[in-house]
Amino acid sequence: MPTPDTAASCPCGSGDLLNACCGRYHAGTPAPSAESLMRSRYSAYVLGQVDYLLATTLPAQQSGLDREAIRTWSLQSTWLGLEVEQSEVLGGQPEHAFVTFTARWHDDAGEHSHRERSAFVQHDGQWFFIDPTVDLNAGRNDPCPCASGQKFKKCCAAYLN
Ligand SMILES: [Zn+2]
Ligand SMILES: [Zn+2]
């Protein structure tokens, strides 16, 4: 993994230096909000911080992630920018949020722009990304995969879709 230049401006486009922005979260400080987690995940794609991308996905989904595919996509793309459009903090116990953003990148197939409204949940003071491409494997009356101790239907299922 290339050593990130912590005196460089942060790839998330905040205008702050990497070490005053997403770099802190990559180094282990929990991101304080869903938006800051989302931004730090984009920066992790730019910097090839695959471990961070895995660790900030809902723990119950981590085994369903394709580490090599994430790594390849991260490294073979030229990341062009991030725009965060909206953060919706929905509250609840645990707290849920959505962040709407557009990420742009360039690869062998050309230039891409992807707009997504991503779901996040907070657990034990840490925010996690709920990956829409990985099955949560939970029935409505099962314990919620976010480990809140509540039923899925009363917890994350109520905030998804
Ligand atoms: Zn940043
Ligand atoms: Zn939940």
What would you say this structure looks like, in words?
The chain has helices at 22-26, 34-47, 50-55, 67-76, and strands at 78-91, 96-107, 110-123, 126-130. With 161 residues, the protein is α+β, with helices and mostly antiparallel strands. It has one domain (18-159): Nuclear Transport Factor 2, Chain: A (Roll), CATH 3.10.450. The protein has a 4-stranded antiparallel beta sheet, covered by helices on one side. α2 packs across α4 (67-76). The longest helix has 14 residues, at 34-47. The termini are far apart. The site of one zinc ion has 7 residues, from α2.
Question: How would you summarize the topology of this molecule?
Answer:
Layout lengths: L21 H5 L7 H14 L2 H6 L11 H10 L1 E14 L4 E12 L2 E14 L2 E5 L31
Antiparallel strand pairs: 1-2, 2-3, 3-4
